[in-house]
Amino acid sequence: MEVSFIKSAFAESHYPPPDRPEVAFAGRSNVGKSSLINTLVHRKGLAKTSATPGRTQSLNFFSVADRFYLVDLPGYGYAVASREAKKSWQRMIDIYLSHRDNLKAVVVILDIRRDPSKGDVELIQWLKEYQRRVILVLTKSDKLSRHQVISRAQSIGEELKSISEDLPTVFSAKTRQGREEIWGKIIQAAEIEGLPVHTL
Ligand code: GDP
Description:
Elements: E1 3-9, E2 22-27, H1 33-41, E3 59-64, E4 68-72, H2 83-99, E5 103-111, H3 118-129, E6 134-139, H4 146-160, E7 169-170, H5 179-190
Parallel strand pairs: 2-4, 2-5, 5-6, 6-7
Antiparallel strand pairs: 1-3, 3-4
The structure holds guanosine-5'-diphosphate (GDP).
Guanosine-5'-diphosphate (GDP) is lined by residues 27, 29-35, 49, 75, 139-140, 142-143, 172-174.
């Protein structure tokens, strides 16, 4: 299946036309967002980690099988980012998440080993307010024992229950645990049944 980079956008006028469903990926810097995207589409270097975390990055649009857009949103929460950089991230994301008509779901990625940060919670709350569908992913599960994974997934799920209807999916870019489940949720949210995911 064809996966291709379409463009980077810093402003609404640069987005590709909203002519197909779209699913966006968000998470704090270094959480494993690029690794998740690359695992989903089986392309090693498709989504790239920024060389300078915390700098203002673009929204990166990819086309999957000409059926939908996958959007890599810039990572947030980098501690030493300047106030100006944080503000400009916020502005860019607010405009995108509130205006984009063809946006069907936002995959929010959390590290299974950490409690959700203030930034994570604010993002999920904000998405709920704007009635955006959230797909929760708890990544880096390979770093914990099976027992720890279950208990962390339960406690994070419990903490976010009041702001997200989605039950978190446990994922690892290393073992690919959860890949099929996440695809299932994306396909359902974006209504792209028949997408030959197995050929990705
Ligand atoms: P991004 O900044 O959110 O795009 O994060 P990256 O995908 O670049 O990952 C940040 C770091 O975490 C890299 O060193 C990855 O190799 C590592 N990483 C990402 N996902 C996983 C995972 O599922 N398991 C393990 N063990 N490491 C991961």
